[in-house]
Amino acid sequence: MLQVRRYETGEGLIGDMIYDELHPRESETIIDPFDPTHLKTFPSGSKSHDLLEPCCDAANRSMRFRPLAASQRRAIEELDRLHPSIKRLKNPHLYPVGLEKSLHDRRTRLVMHARGLAA
Length: 119
Fold this sequence. Notes:
With 119 residues, the protein is α+β, with helices and mostly antiparallel strands.
């Protein structure tokens, strides 16, 4: 099951990692799925929390949904924690999001196998 972990420092949000909960994470490094030469390693000791919450379990609703106003407040609070260079309209920086290294490696192996390029 895929999950998204958000990392932050005292200065704000620093990036999101997509990882597989069923496989151990090898590192705190993310790899851009569109450019494998673009890596980012989160500093050790960075605060982090998982973003995705299951809403169904075996086709049964398993969580209560937040009121719309609470969801709006949370979204505004998260946006406020982004660095201004990411939110600016002219030449914005990109917010780092990527695959955890072992998930990226597994994805690459599967793609290579599907294309008949792997042994």
